[in-house]
Amino acid sequence: MDQTTNTDLIPFQGQQPWGMQPDMVINDLLTDDPRLWAPLSANSWSRPIHLNVTSGYYVHLLRVNKAGLIQRHRHSGAVHAHTLKGRWHYLEHDWVAEEGGYVFEPPGETHTLVVPEGCQEMLTLFFVQGALIFVDPEGNATGYDDVFTRIEKYKKHFESVGLGADYVKNFMR
Ligand code: FE
Predict the structure, then answer these.
(1) What pLDDT was estimated at residue 28?
(2) How far is the CA of 48 from the centre of ligand 1 (A)?
(3) What is the reported pLDDT for 66?
C-alpha cells in the first residue's frame, strides 16, 4: 500500500461526543516548583494530578522527606500506587514497596503508611478511589479524606502561594 492509499495515518474525521471532558496532559510531574506541592505535615507534601469529582477519585504524588508516617486509615475504595523514589511499608504488612514497584490496596483495608529511617526521599504516585477514613487502633472513625476534602486543601494552598484558588480547576474533571 502506498502513502496515498494508506488510511491508517488519517486522523479521526468525526466529532467527539457532546459532553466529553477535556483531556489532561502533565509533562512535569516531578517539578520542584514548591507552589505545586501542598504541605500535608512537617515532612510530607502532595501534588494534585487529577481530581475527579464525577467518579469520586483522585490521583496525587506523595512526597515524604525523612522518615515519616501517614495516619492510620481505612479505604472505602481501591488504591493503586507506583513508587517512583525511595521505599515505604505498612505497619500491618511485612512487604516493602520499593522504587519502581506497583502496589494494589483493596477496598476495605486499614493500614498505616511508614517511610523508614534512612530513606531521604519517598515519592509515590497514588490513584485513590473513594475515601480514606481515619481510625483509632480499634477501627473507630475519627475523620475522613476524599476528593472533595483534597480539593479544599489544594485550593487553600494555591491561594496562599499566589496561584489563586481557581488553579485547582486545572486538575479537576
Ligand atoms: Fe492508604
Answers:
(1) 94
(2) 16
(3) 84
Q: For each of the domains in the chain, give its residue range(s) and CATH number, in order of start.
A: 36-171 (2.60.120.10)
CA–centroid distance, residue 50 to ligand 1 (Å): 17
**Distance, CA 26 to ligand 1 centroid (Å)?**
24
- Residue 8, CB half-sphere, CA atoms under 13 Å: how many? 4
Biggest alpha carbon distance in the chain? 69
Identity of the amino acid at 48: P
User: Is the separation of the CB atoms in 80 and 62 below 8 Å?
Assistant: no
Rounded distance from Cα 82 to ligand 1 centre (Å): 13
Q: How far apart are the first and last CA of the chain?
A: 41
Rounded-to-integer distance, Cα 103 and Cα 53, Å: 24
Give the model's pLDDT for residue 34: 95
* pLDDT value, residue 67: 83
Q: What is the pLDDT of residue 4?
A: 64
Distance, CA 16 to ligand 1 centroid (Å)? 36
Based on its alpha-carbon atoms, the radius of gyration of the chain, rounded to whole angstroms, reads 19
For ligand 1, the distance from its centroid to the CA atom of residue 146, given in whole angstroms, is: 12
- Grid-cell match 493503586, residue found: 80
Which three cell numbers mark 25? 496532559
Q: Tell me how far the alpha carbon of residue 115 lies from the centroid of ligand 1, in angstroms.
A: 13
Low-confidence ranges of the chain (pLDDT < 50): none
